[in-house]
Amino acid sequence: MKLVDKKLNAVQLNGLIVGPILGSGIILLPPIIFEVAGDYAILSWITIMLINWFFAFLFGSLSVKFPGNSGVTQAVEDVFGKYIKYLTSFFLIGAVCFGPIAVLMTAAQFIHFDGFLSTKWIAFLLMGITILILLLNVSFIGKIAFVLSSVSALLLFSGGLTSLIQYPKTELFTTSFDISSFGYSLLLLFWTIVGWEVIGNYSNDVKNVRSTIPKAVGFSALIISIVCLMVAASIQWSDIPNISGASQITVASILTPIFGSLTGLIIGFIAPGLCLSSIILFIGGTARLIRGMAEEGILPKKLSYRTKTNVPLGGIIALSCFHIFVFVLAFLDLINITQIVAIADVFFISNVFVTLLAAIKLFDQKIVKMMIVMMLFVLFVFLSFSSPIILVFIAIFTIIFIYKQIKFNASQSCEDNEENLLMVK
Fold first, then answer.
1. How large is the average pLDDT for residues 137-158?
2. What pLDDT shows up at residue 3?
């Protein structure tokens, strides 16, 4: 089957990174973080943006070193073996089986049909739109994502800057620093840097991997940092008149000085746009991972099917079927958005945790190794706050795959010894 060779350039890949990582977090978290950490919320944002730059460097470098549909999980195989690679792959697939539903429900909250449709039904319809977008050529998706992320980033930056100039606070720091509140704010802000680990799954769809990925990753990290810090600063240091009667300033509030009565319409565009960009990145990247695993024989061969435009249709259909199942659970009130996020977070963190363990060996720089160790400790703390039931499931799954890897290594060692004996004879 002849494939249409339309690959992503640095600008299009940048569009697939910025919007998804900004995602729902930039809309929901700034006022929450200010409420939790007070005047030192900006310090929390600066800290998480430094971590954001580290993640961008780490996963960008791994994506260049290990290109392919498997993404950075290929780095895990290089260090620990193929079964540990499959373990991290299943962690990522597990996260994307749940996470997009929570993001869709967040986006649905900003779309109103005068009570005609509930939030869950709006989220379900958005999932259908997402699937249709994912069936398009990846370069066209990159263009759509670039427009959505660029417009959203520009509007948020402009609103934040205008709010700071027109309604500045006279006193910037009035509350005392509290270490527990600061730590909790960082835990919440981790949601804003999830996404870098999926970039490598697009490497087969990128023009000139060694130059395109570093350019796109560096520029994306810069835009994400500028927008996040501008929005956080304007939420914290702007004294905007409370027109809507809300109990606290929101991201919509910082857009009011520019857009006035049109603010509701603007935020109704930005929030769903960023959320859909996020879902497109994760489902598209994970579908490519599923295709790679199917080609290796780990998953059913039918899941490796792709269209003439290189769309991983088998993986998209598989994920969509599970998303429908999660939606059914949500409609029956057997699971809520908080539980969905909790499950997805555990899988995401587990995937990143194993990848960072492999990265310790793959990077020679001592400073990078030290930062990885520090990040492993932070992720371990995050996992300690997770549901015991999910952690037990993760532990059992991990033990099974470690056992398979040990068994595989032993069989390989026996085969090597037999070959050496034959050579001696």
1. 80
2. 43
